[in-house]
């Protein structure tokens, strides 16, 4: 079977490591360690199947095509146009006609000769393929936000853990730019005792007024809807704009919490837990059109130790990115933006004996390294689940318009049955997450 | 129909469609409107009800539930309305709603919405309703009801689920098995045991058993869980299932059995099972088991040792050290030695430092490198002290390793020892100490290092001390404090070599006092010292040296000093991009005045040609009449005018025209013609993208989003509006024509304007290919030619706009809205058939 061949092929590894490590050492496994330079022989390559090959899926595909250790064998999408276009792209990249294409992801997951899955479906279609892939012995590179609701997120983490799989989330900021350094500065007390962190995410937009029509012939629309509640097709419903509809995505809040919220948690050192209180200060929702996610929003979250996380759409002085504020200063980081007070912090150095966070400079490369070594990736399932959970609980708080109290250890909402009911969603038949 | 009348009709129809709209746009009775709701109508009544729910505390839910139920039960209510109602009954509903909702479970379209109401409801009555529906549905609907029962982990459903697990429909049977796994009670586990699944469903059955076992283990029923896992590890099972079962076994077997299983499997032949065992060990919180396994490590086979060492390296709560030391003592297998060594990072103690230091000098190289890494990161108490003690080891190799590691660890407590060695009798040790001080010393150590430079010491030591001083000063944040000990030493220094050495190092401290000392030394009685001082001034990193360098150039006795001062001093400083423009200009101006040789003047001209400033242009123009450098100045002026042409079109053109009138050679005339043409068309790239603009903004209005601001007129679009404009040029090498407004202005919920001028030789048709993030409104010659209030990422040819250019200048104005995230725009001018447009030049007017 797959895993057997995988590890047997890699006897030349310097070490065979375990995964799910309690403490993740900051290491890069250099590709030279993994074998001779150049592309491994076909029987030694890590085989990849892509589920969901729209915009983001094609972006990620580039990373897999570019890694000589991998071979992409199959692609899947419910939109035949996306599927066939991507199949052509893979065949051109390899100069052959070997790439398979499926409109039903289950056919891809059933293949024993596929080692890993790249998953880039809309949010409402994350859990089911992810769990199926894990339970059939495949490792997964899955897009953020981790899950569409909190309960299925926990089910995904459990499946990955029970079946011993490697998971990487598309929270690629951890592998680029100044994000890691910023978190190391915070974790090593350079701004003193942190009392709050501002997480700035984009403002949402109203819209979705295109008329309802029949779906285009290349799209298997019933499959696209999948486990979500049925609703008729419009050009504003699918492909990119599903993000602004709560039945498939979670608005700008959920789209971005897996980036800046994830970084904020990394800097706080709360990767495996979360806030205990979510207080919605304001939220505005569109009144018309099918895009129903909140446009402006502000939720003040509090951790057990009193630290506050303010999740807000970026406006005024609350900027996009993550800004930690402590007793001795502050640090703000975004893509292409890094500021601190005192300014000298930007030139500081972290000593070897201080907290050195997991080092990765290539997010997909790190995933493949860990597929080989079986070590924990830089954004494993539990971590992604926790940053997504912050988002989910913020959404519940603004949906019900009241403060939510949360126990991150038992993963229960306290004293609020209606809110607890929003932690999971009934899946449309015949889909379930077992 | 008359306009007024038709407007009334439209409004009336709208009102009907929306169930009566009140003056403020909120429906008067959203529930009435809801009852008639169908997809395609305005969502407003639904959004209104959602808003009511949002504003209501749980105590208010009864009232809302009652209203929703009234609509649900009404025979006229549409199906689409019922979908909405059921979904929200999942939030505000109580057992009151079950009688109305449960019957919907049999409806093809409403079964799922009904489950959205019932599945989250805690009350057992909801579970009863779902169970009761089982005999009434088939196929997909039954699978759905089963999945809700499973999600609720309804233990009472086990007998029913057990029966369904044998259903002929694999969809139903599979769902029932999965649901039993979710329920995960002992009864459910027994039911799963009893199932004889057909081949196609045996993977589903195995997964359900894994799930059930996991739930049992979580409930503390380890023996039962272990029994189930044990049935699933057999070699005939799929790999994924075996691995999960093995992992489960390690977690649920009694400790001695789990330990034995781990020790056996980790040394076994099957890689996948070894990996699963490792994963289980890592996930386990049984410290005693992990210690028992660790104890057996030295006796295991290589595969087992490698696997376990790698994973236990990360586990601080395992007593791994004894095993690691034994293994390091016994084995010669490099891979195993490496893995064992790495464990010392977390598990090593101060007593292990000498041994690891020895390994840092051993073969093979990969082992030595790992030893260094371990020494750098070992955290145990006493490690620093152990390293400091090794500084004075009789073994030179040990000393070297200790010093390197201490520097890397920045161990402050080593500094006194290092200073003692620096000042001690052993010159070789002193030099090593100096090198280490270079890596980790601070301002406090500058005095003893400077003293070395003043005293009669070996060349090697003086060299090392000098380098250390340079390194420390470079890293010092308070440069003034760093200068003090050096200046004090300079006062004390009597011999020329020591004064020379110290003078050279003042470059690293910079500052007023240091500069002052250097200037004083230029008048020193000793020629060597004078020479060193001059060279130091010439190399000075701050612009404050410039006036003194100019003075030196004017008054120097040796012509070579004058040249050095101008060329390596002033011109170097003027070339520093981080200096403010006025300072750079002033230095170039002085050089032009004072330089005797044309070489330095020409260099100044070349430097001025790079400064994007009108004063630089003026200065250059002034030089064009000079006999020696006139030609260089002319070419430089042309080049600079071309660069400035994008924003200072008038003045650039004036300069170029003036030079045309006095130009002699053919070459120069040609360059001038080209430059004039380029400046006229500075706003356009060769393939038609607009690359130079004037930008005005941001404009905001409290409480309005980017989309709201689309139709709010700000100054740039008002006929008499006065706005501030700034020139924006696109850097080469970026995405063609892309103006990244977010990088220039930033912010959310605002707008900005871009303006340029298209001069057309004749009246002609054209196409503007426009991209924007988010929305864009375009005016040409004061008239709106395009408006798209979009929310989207920017790609180059999102909107194609047909326009008519008139002969002469056509002002192009674009308004770009910003919601959040990225904010950008691009525009390209083409002819209607997509080819380049002839007879058109583009340049923004001056701001």
Structure explained in plain terms:
The complex is a heterodimer of chains A (434) and B (847). With 434 residues, chain A is of the alpha/beta class. In chain A, 29% of the residues lie in helices and 18% in strands. Chain A has 2 domains: 3-173, Rossmann fold, CATH 3.40.50; 177-355 and 382-415, 2-Layer Sandwich (Dihydrodipicolinate Reductase, domain 2). The model of chain A is unreliable at 1-36 (pLDDT under 50). Helices cover 57% and strands 9% of the residues of chain B. In chain B, strands 1, 2, 4, 6, 7, 9 and 11 form a 7-stranded antiparallel sheet that branches. At the A-B interface, α1, α6, α11 and α12 of A face α3, α5, α7, α9 and α11 of B.
Would you state the CATH class of the largest domain in chain A? Alpha Beta
* Rg calculated over all Cα atoms of chain B: 41 Å
Beta-strand portion of chain B reads 5-15%
Radius of gyration of chain A, rounded? 21 Å
Strand residues, percent of chain A? 15-25%
Number of strands of chain B: 11
Assembly state of the chains shown: heterodimer
Fraction of helical residues of chain A: 25-40%
Mean pLDDT of chain A: 89
Unreliable segments of 5+ consecutive residues of chain A: 1-36
**CATH domain fold name of the largest domain in chain A:** Dihydrodipicolinate Reductase, domain 2
- Average pLDDT score of chain B: 91
Apparent shape of chain A: globular
Inertia-based shape of chain B:
flat
Which residue ranges of chain B are poorly predicted, with pLDDT under 50 across at least 5 consecutive positions?
9-23
Per CATH, the superfamily of the largest domain in chain A is: Dihydrodipicolinate Reductase, domain 2
Helix content of chain B: 55-70%
Note the total helix count of chain A.
12
């Amino acid at each position: 079977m797959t895993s057997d061949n995988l590890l047997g092929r890699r006897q030349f590894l310097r070490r065979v490591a375990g995964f799910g490590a309690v403490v993740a050492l900051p290491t890069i496994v250099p590709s030279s360690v993994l074998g001779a330079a150049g592309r491994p022989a076909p029987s030694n390559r890590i085989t990849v199947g892509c589920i969901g090959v729209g915009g983001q899926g094609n972006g990620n595909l580039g990373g897999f095509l570019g890694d000589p250790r991998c071979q992409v064998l199959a692609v899947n999408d419910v939109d035949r146009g996306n599927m066939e276009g991507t199949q052509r792209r893979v065949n051109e990249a390899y100069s052959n006609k070997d790439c398979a294409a499926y409109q039903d992801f289950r056919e891809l997951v059933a293949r024993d000769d596929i080692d890993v899955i790249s998953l880039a479906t809309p949010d409402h279609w994350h859990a089911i393929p992810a769990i199926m892939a894990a339970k059939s012995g495949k490792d997964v590179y899955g897009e953020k936000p981790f899950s569409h609701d909190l309960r299925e997120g926990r089910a995904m983490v459990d499946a990955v853990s029970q079946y011993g799989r490697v998971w990487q989330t598309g929270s690629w900021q951890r592998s680029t730019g100044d994000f890691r350094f910023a978190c190391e500065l915070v974790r090593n007390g350079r701004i003193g005792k942190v009392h709050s962190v501002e997480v700035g995410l984009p403002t949402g937009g109203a819209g979705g007024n295109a008329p309802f029509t029949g779906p285009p012939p290349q799209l298997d629309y019933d499959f696209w809807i999948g486990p979500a509640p049925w609703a008729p097709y419009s050009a504003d419903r699918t492909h990119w704009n599903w993000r602004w509809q709560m039945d498939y995505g979670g608005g700008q809040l959920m789209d971005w919490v897996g980036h800046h919220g994830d970084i904020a948690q990394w800097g706080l050192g709360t990767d495996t837990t979360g806030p205990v209180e979510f207080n919605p200060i304001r939220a505005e929702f569109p009144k018309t059109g099918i895009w129903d996610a909140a446009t402006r929003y502000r939720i003040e979250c509090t951790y057990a130790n009193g630290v506050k996380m303010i999740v807000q759409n970026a406006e005024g002085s609350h900027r996009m990115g993550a800004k930690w504020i402590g007793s001795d200063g502050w640090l703000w980081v975004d893509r292409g933006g890094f500021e601190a007070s005192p300014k000298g912090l930007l030139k500081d150095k972290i000593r070897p004996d201080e907290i050195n966070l997991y080092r990765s400079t290539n997010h997909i490369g790190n995933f493949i390294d860990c597929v080989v070594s079986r070590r924990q990736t830089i954004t494993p399932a539990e971590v992604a689940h926790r940053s997504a959970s912050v988002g989910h609980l913020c959404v519940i708080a603004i949906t019900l318009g009241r403060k939510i109290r949360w126990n991150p250890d038992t993963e229960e909402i306290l004293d609020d049955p209606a809110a607890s009911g929003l932690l999971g969603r009934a899946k449309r038949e015949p889909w379930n997450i077992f | 129909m008359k306009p007024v009348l038709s407007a009334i009709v439209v409004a009336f129809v709208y009102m009907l469609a929306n169930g009566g709209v009140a003056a403020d746009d909120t429906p008067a009775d959203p529930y009435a409107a809801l009852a008639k709701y169908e997809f395609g109508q305005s969502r407003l009544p639904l959004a209104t009800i959602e808003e009511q729910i949002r504003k209501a505390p749980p105590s208010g839910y009864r009232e809302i539930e009652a209203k929703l139920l009234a609509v649900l039960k009404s025979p006229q209510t549409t199906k689409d309305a019922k979908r909405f109602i059921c979904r929200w009954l999942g939030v505000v509903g109580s057992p009151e709603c079950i009688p109305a909702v449960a019957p919907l479970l049999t409806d093809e379209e409403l079964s799922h919405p009904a489950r959205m109401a019932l599945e989250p409801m805690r009350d057992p009555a909801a579970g009863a309703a779902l169970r009761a529906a089982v005999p009434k549905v088939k196929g997909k609907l039954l699978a759905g009801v089963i999945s809700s029962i499973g999600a609720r982990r309804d233990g009472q459903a086990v007998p029913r689920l057990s029966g369904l697990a044998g259903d002929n429909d694999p969809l139903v049977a599979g769902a029932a098995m999965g649901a039993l796994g979710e329920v995960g009670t002992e009864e459910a586990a027994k039911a799963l045991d009893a199932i004889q699944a057909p081949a196609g469903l045996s993977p589903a059955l195995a997964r359900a058993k894994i799930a059930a076992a996991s739930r049992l283990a979580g409930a503390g029923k380890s023996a039962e869980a272990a029994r189930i896992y044990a049935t699933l590890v057999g070699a005939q099972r799929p790999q994924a299932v075996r691995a999960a079962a093995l992992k489960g076994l390690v977690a649920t077997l009694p400790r001695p059995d789990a330990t034995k299983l781990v020790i056996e499997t980790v040394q076994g032949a099957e890689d996948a099972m070894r990996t699963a065992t490792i994963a289980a060990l890592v996930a386990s919180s049984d410290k005693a088991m992990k210690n028992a396994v660790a104890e057996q490590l030295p006796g295991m086979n290589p595969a087992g040792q490698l696997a376990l060492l790698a994973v236990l390296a990360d586990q601080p709560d395992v007593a791994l050290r004894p095993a690691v030391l034994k293994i390091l003592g016994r084995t010669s297998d490099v891979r195993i030695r490496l893995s064992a060594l790495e464990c010392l990072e977390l598990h090593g103690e101060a007593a292990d430092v000498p041994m690891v230091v020895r390994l840092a000098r051993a073969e093979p190289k990969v082992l030595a490198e790992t030893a260094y890494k371990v020494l750098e990161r070992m955290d145990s108490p006493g490690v620093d002290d152990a390293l400091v003690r090794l500084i004075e080891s009789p073994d030179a190799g040990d000393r070297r390793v200790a010093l390197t590691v201490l520097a890397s660890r920045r161990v402050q407590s080593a500094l006194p020892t290092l200073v003692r060695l620096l000042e001690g009798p052993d010159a070789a040790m002193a030099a090593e100490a100096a090198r280490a001080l270079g890596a980790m010393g601070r301002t406090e150590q500058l005095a003893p290092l400077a003293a070395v430079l003043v005293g009669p010491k070996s060349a090697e030591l003086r060299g090392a001390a000098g380098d250390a001083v340079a390194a420390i000063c470079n890293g010092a944040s308070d440069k003034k404090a760093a200068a003090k000990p050096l200046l004090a030493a300079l006062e004390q220094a009597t011999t020329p070599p020591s004064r020379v050495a110290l003078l050279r190092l003042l470059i690293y401290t910079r500052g007023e006092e240091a500069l002052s000392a250097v200037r004083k030394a230029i008048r020193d009685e000793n020629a060597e010292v004078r020479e060193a001082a001059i060279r130091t001034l010439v190399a000075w990193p701050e612009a404050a040296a410039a006036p003194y360098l100019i003075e030196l150039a004017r008054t120097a006795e040796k012509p070579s000093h004058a040249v050095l001062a101008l060329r390596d001093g002033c011109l170097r400083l003027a070339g520093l991009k981080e200096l403010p423009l006025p300072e750079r200009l002033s230095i170039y101006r002085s050089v032009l005045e004072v330089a005797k040789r044309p070489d330095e003047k020409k260099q100044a001209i070349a430097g001025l040609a790079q400064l994007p400033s009108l004063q630089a242009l003026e200065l250059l123009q002034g030089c064009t009449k000079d006999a020696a450098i006139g030609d260089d100045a002319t070419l430089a002026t042309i080049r600079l005018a071309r660069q400035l042409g994008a924003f200072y079109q008038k003045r650039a053109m004036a300069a170029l025209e003036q030079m045309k009138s006095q130009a002699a050679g053919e070459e120069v005339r040609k360059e001038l013609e080209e430059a004039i043409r380029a400046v006229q068309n500075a706003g356009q790239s060769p393939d038609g993208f607009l690359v130079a603009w004037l930008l005005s903004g941001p404009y905001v209005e409290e409480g309005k989003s980017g989309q709201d601001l689309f139709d709010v007129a700000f100054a740039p679009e008002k006929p008499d509006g006065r706005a501030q404009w700034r020139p924006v040029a696109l850097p080469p090498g970026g995405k063609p024509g892309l103006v990244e407004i977010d990088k220039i202005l930033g912010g959310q919920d605002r707008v900005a304007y871009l303006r340029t001028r298209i001069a057309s030789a004749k009246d002609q048709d054209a196409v503007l290919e426009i991209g924007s993030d988010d929305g864009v409104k375009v005016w040409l010659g004061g008239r709106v030619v395009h408006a798209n209030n979009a929310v989207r990422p920017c790609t180059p040819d999102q909107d194609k706009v047909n326009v008519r250019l008139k002969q002469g200048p056509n002002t192009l104005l674009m308004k770009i809205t910003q919601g959040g995230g990225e904010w950008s725009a691009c525009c390209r001018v083409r002819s209607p058939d997509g080819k380049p447009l002839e007879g058109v030049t583009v340049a923004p007017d001056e701001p």
